[in-house]
Amino acid sequence: MVEEQDEKILAELQKDGRATNQQLADTVGMSTSACWRRVRALEESGVIEGYSALVKREAAGFATSAILHVSLERHDTTFVDEFVARVMQRREVLECFATTGDADYHLRVVVRDMDAYNKFLDEFMFRIPGIRHVRTNVILKEIKTGVALPF
Amino acid sequence: MVEEQDEKILAELQKDGRATNQQLADTVGMSTSACWRRVRALEESGVIEGYSALVKREAAGFATSAILHVSLERHDTTFVDEFVARVMQRREVLECFATTGDADYHLRVVVRDMDAYNKFLDEFMFRIPGIRHVRTNVILKEIKTGVALPF
DNA sequence: TCCATTTTGGTAAAATCTACCAAAATTGAG
DNA sequence: CTCAATTTTGGTAGATTTTACCAAAATGGA
């Protein structure tokens, strides 16, 4: 489905999401029209889900972030669906993964300051029904925050 | 430093990193030239670190991912710097955070399959000097993988 | 208030995007 | 292998967008 030439395109568009079609065509060794059509196909088929500006967190005023380990009391669809639905619409929750291991879920949360984080816990997280346990791991340092798949 | 109008621009460029300057100017209510200059300033000052295409992981052939909890034996700069340097150049490691809590670091790793993950552990992770403990939490489901700061 | 500085909106040339075309490459059946 | 059907390619041109410049408006410090 995704061929080698597509991977080159994807790799390049991950590195520079605003590369012009001509730059792209050059770096992957295609004509502009062929390249443009493949990009379009990747977008329409949903392989490319979108494009985003990557904004420097501290510069934008988000000083605090944490990784939360969350466990649920029970794993009925009712509880799980409710949890997922709530997490999806909270924009402070950048990431959420269901994982093996001690916790059911790993969440990454980004907020402006500790006050906002405390509020997030009290007014959102602790009010989700069926939460058994929440452990906060404050992020001391962001070593790496990548989005590019390792083609 | 980052004003309200800049936040609007950043929010929009996070949602659509390829929005044309005209679209942007419309949605934030500015003239195209003023808008364009602000975007340029945000890029040059480093508030916008770049742009990236967001690629659907499974469609691109990366079936397996995990969150690793890593602890070091000692926390001398020598060991820490070595760990950080190695992690930085491994493209399978999409994210790495130094955190409070039981583990020193949280890593998110993305690979094509379990074989590749096993190889990643054996040939990379377990060979980093000064590693005390590595716990793998396999990602069963990606509930949410966002990059947009919650302006 | 007044002057200096910054930010703004408008404009036009250069660059880019995007939809078309015919030609080339690929595929599959006989 | 051959040939026709289908897909993919490169080239082109009009429409759109980017980008550098200008004078006017807004800002803010003394």
Automatic annotation (TrEMBL), chains A, B:
Q: Which GO terms describe its cellular component?
A: cytosol
Q: Which residues are the signal sequence here?
A: none
- Segments forming domain HTH asnC-type: 2-63
- Recorded GO MF terms: sequence-specific DNA binding
Pfam family of the protein (one):
AsnC_trans_reg
Q: Which InterPro entries match?
A: ArsR-like_HTH (IPR011991), AsnC-type_HTH_dom (IPR000485), Dimeric_a/b-barrel (IPR011008), Tscrpt_reg_AsnC-like (IPR019888), Tscrpt_reg_AsnC/Lrp_C (IPR019887), Tscrpt_reg_HTH_AsnC-type_CS (IPR019885), WH-like_DNA-bd_sf (IPR036388), WH_DNA-bd_sf (IPR036390)
Quick one: a GO biological-process term for this protein? response to amino acid
Which terms are listed as keywords in the entry? DNA-binding, Transcription, Transcription regulation
This protein is called what? Leucine-responsive regulatory protein
State the species of origin.
Bradyrhizobium ivorense
Gene name of the record = lrp_7
